[in-house]
Amino acid sequence: MSDLPARTLSLTTTEQEICELLANVVETIHAKQPEQPRLVLRIAGGWVRDKLLGRVSHDIDIAIDHMSGFDLAQHVNQYLSEHGYPVSTIAKISQNPERSKHLETATTSVLGLLLDFVNLRSETYNSDSRIPQIEFGTPADDALRRDITINALFYNIHTRQVEDFTGRGLADLRDGIVRTPLEPFKTFTDDPLRVLRVL
Description:
It comes from Coemansia aciculifera. This is CCA tRNA nucleotidyltransferase, mitochondrial. Keywords: Nucleotidyltransferase, Transferase. Its EC number is 2.7.7.72. The protein is of the alpha+beta class. About 35% of the residues lie in helices and about 20% in strands. The protein has a seven-stranded mixed β-sheet with strand order 3-4-5-2-1-8-9. The protein has a two-stranded antiparallel sheet with strand order 6-7. The mean pLDDT is about 85.
């Protein structure tokens, strides 16, 4: 067997600039609101998997630990404006559980790449519905609610390290294993559409 994928990633110049810019936005927010817990931003999911596999990916989802995606996107646009960068409109995509859209997200262009902003979350399902109750969650909560372990990896933009909160995502990526973070029956009973996403 080959070694586990590296916990660091090789970023393009633009990806590097985006991470630095987002880290600066967090510092600016913290300077204005020092009494609030410091934000931690992570790139989540498929982008991390693809980068570890050496593939090009433009699907950059920014996961936020205790702020809504729309609020962070507004802070990002304010920072861009104040520092002479081009500013794009923020598209706010509201919840729509009937269409499997369980959480509000915000999308905007930063340095020419589209970024989706969404808060980390936990999901609780009732047995009679696939529409979850959603709350702010920890990175581990968010990783465990995902479809498969290799899609549950994060890239922490502050430490510049890959984080594997399931404890199996990196090994599964190395070994070519498709595995649910929780027991498959629970993962697929909670949301049967995950079966299609896995396929």
